[in-house]
TrEMBL record:
Residues 9-132 form the Creatinase N-terminal domain. Residues 533-592 form the Peptidase M24 C-terminal domain. This is Aminopeptidase P family protein. GO terms for molecular function: metal ion binding; metalloaminopeptidase activity. It comes from Sodaliphilus pleomorphus. Keywords: Aminopeptidase, Hydrolase, Metal-binding, Protease.
Length: 592
């Protein structure tokens, strides 16, 4: 791979010289700012060989760097070896930022270039200010992926599908009305929507264009009088066409969006989210623009009763699949199975549910030292062979028509050490503390994060990733607006939102431990003097590994919490399992 990527790097530099470009910045996203991108837009991966979800490549005529966060440090070091790229760590003291690095490498009047389709309005504005402050020039119309990418994959061609109201709980007209009320209240006449999960939610459409997230490539423009969907018309089946016609949606070709926006009436004020809309499309709009956070983010995050009921059923199906998969792992750990076999078995077991439509992200099956790589992905070359010894971390999730799941369990395959029990129990204590939290209305994720981190901090230990993220409903496994993490995110937790609860601990070269459930925000109590209080309902159904629990480290309250949860897991999953599977689960859920 390094030989190919080095050649790709030299091809880019030759193209840069022809355009008199001194530096180019290449993010790992697409024009919709998607977390996962289709192969057509993976130019950064083609150029660098780095496959992580987060990473920005910067190339000058004689140097190249890639910036990524702590989840991918080990992965990036391996994949960038001999590629011509140097890895830089984001948000690590002593490491330069992209801007600092460019400022030190470029001379006055240097031309910095980007593909304006890949940068949001906010990102492009920041870059423009940076260039102005340093005497650089900025070009936003540099498209090397279109010009020099040999063998570029085709755009995805799978058909769109209608998402039934029986699973969604709200029709398109109702959603449009709610969105337009928010848009009008903000002072705009219409809205440009570019995020794929927002479009899928708003139009009750799903697709297969992006891995792990059931969305379709599209843009949307809506006002009180017009609803326009820009989509490859080959994707529009008769069912989809009838569905859109029923809700007065006009269909235009995906590539027509820029031209359409340039002709929007100057009398209109159009709302757009500058953190989500690309600079290219934002600049195409010549009318009055109102920059606001997309109201769809908030509306989509609060689940209705139909969606919540769907989550609960999806968790049962997922839990039953996990029981069967983990039974198989334990029974075959000494038979030469690999981390890839674990991934495949999970998919096989989930596929027994007729509502299963695929994984919600790439399964992380990290055995021993691989468990310490936070976003490890096993390959044919890297996959470890399991043995009846050490820890196995499995972070996995499924997309079901009635809900999205995300769970992590760490189990022992044999020879448990006292240190492993100690570390596992520290992580478990933080996980349990967050799950039993009671908190007032308008509480932010950063105010709850210490509950999960606290037991680790008491011993000088830590983890660098977030503690909790929002989860979509048969949509993105990671969604906003809130997060539970150390840094402040200005979005409080609200009733009906679903969050993960996933503290961890990672010891490089030894093992990783993470425990994750999904939680639903529900009412706790109401106080005349102090207002409403919320709590969490645990949605995920799968036992913890009690062989790794040091009961002496748990309080009576924590012991009861584990035992009550395990009793519920057995009661809810038991009817879905065979007698042999029930027996296995009963043993795993015995009171500690």
């Amino acid at each position: 791979m390094s030989k190919d990527t080095y050649q790709h790097l030299e091809e880019l530099r030759q193209y840069m010289r022809g355009k008199h470009v001194d530096a180019v910045i290449i993010p790992g996203t697409d024009p919709h700012q998607s977390e996962y991108t289709c192969d057509y837009w993976k130019y950064r991966e083609y150029l660098t060989g780095f496959t992580g979800d987060n990473g920005t490549a910067v190339v000058t005529l004689d140097k190249a760097g890639l910036w990524t966060d702590s989840r991918y440090f080990l992965q990036a070091q391996e994949q960038l070896a001999d590629s011509g790229f140097v890895m830089y760590k984001e948000r690590v003291p002593g490491e330069p930022t992209v801007h600092e690095w460019l400022a030190s490498e470029l001379g006055e009047d240097a031309l910095v270039a980007i593909d304006g389709r890949m940068f949001t309005l906010v990102e492009a504005n920041r870059l423009e200010n940076f260039c102005g402050q340093n005497g650089f020039m900025l070009a936003t119309d540099f498209f090397p992926s279109d010009a020099i990418w040999t063998g570029r994959p085709e755009m995805p061609s799978g058909p769109a599908s209608v998402y039934p109201v029986e699973y969604d709980g709200e029709d398109v007209d109702s959603k449009m009305d709610r969105v337009m009320r928010a848009v009008k209240a903000a002072g705009a006449d219409g809205m440009l929507v570019t995020a794929l999960d927002e479009i899928a939610w708003l139009f009750n459409l799903r697709g297969t264009d992006v891995a792990y997230t059931p969305v379709v490539m599209a843009y949307a423009f809506i006002t009180n009088h017009d609803r326009v969907l820009f989509i490859d018309q080959n994707k529009v089946t008769k069912q989809v066409k009838d569905h859109l016609k029923q809700h007065d949606v006009k269909v235009k070709d995906y590539d027509e969006v820029e031209k359409f926006l340039s002709h929007v009436s100057e009398r209109l004020t159009v709302a757009l989210d500058p953190h989500r809309v690309s600079d290219r499309l934002g600049q195409a709009l010549m009318c009055s623009k109102l920059y606001i956070a997309s109201p769809i983010i908030d509306l989509k995050a609060v689940k209705n009763e139909v969606e919540i009921a769907g989550y609960r059923e999806a968790m049962k199906a997922d839990g039953a699949a996990l029981v069967r998969a983990f039974m198989w792992i334990e029974a075959n750990a000494a038979q030469g199975i690999t981390e890839l076999d674990v991934d495949n078995r999970l998919q096989q077991e989930r596929a027994r549910c007729e509502l299963y439509r695929g994984d919600s992200f790439h399964t992380i099956a990290g055995y021993k030292e691989h468990g310490a790589i936070v976003h490890y992905e096993a390959s044919e070359q890297s996959a470890s062979t399991l043995a009846p010894d050490g820890l196995l971390l499995v972070d996995t999730g499924g997309q079901y028509l009635n809900g999205t799941t995300d769970i992590t369990r760490t189990i022992t395959l044999g020879n448990v050490t006292a240190q492993q029990r100690h570390d596992y129990t520290l992580v478990l204590k933080g996980h349990l503390a967050l799950a039993r939290a009671v908190f007032p209305y308008n509480t932010y994720g950063s105010q709850l994060d210490i509950l999960a981190h606290g037991p680790l901090w008491q011993e000088g230990l830590n983890y660098g990733h977030g503690t909790g993220h929002g989860v979509g409903h048969f949509l993105g496994c990671h969604e906003g607006p809130f997060q539970i993490r150390m840094n402040y995110i200005p979005a409080p937790l609200r009733l009906g939102e679903v969050t993960s609860d996933e503290p961890g601990l990672y010891k490089t070269g030894e093992y990783g431990i993470r425990i994750e459930n999904l939680l639903l925000v529900v009412p706790a109590m109401s106080n005349e003097d102090y207002g409403d209080f919320y709590k969490f309902e645990v949605l995920t159904l799968m036992p913890y590994d009690t062989r790794l629990i040091d009961k002496s480290m748990l309080s009576p309250e924590e012991v009861k919490q584990v035992n009550d949860y395990h009793a519920r897991v057995l009661a809810e999953l038991g009817p879905l399992l065979s007698p042999e599977e029930q027996q296995w689960l009963a043993a795993k859920t015995q009171a500690i």
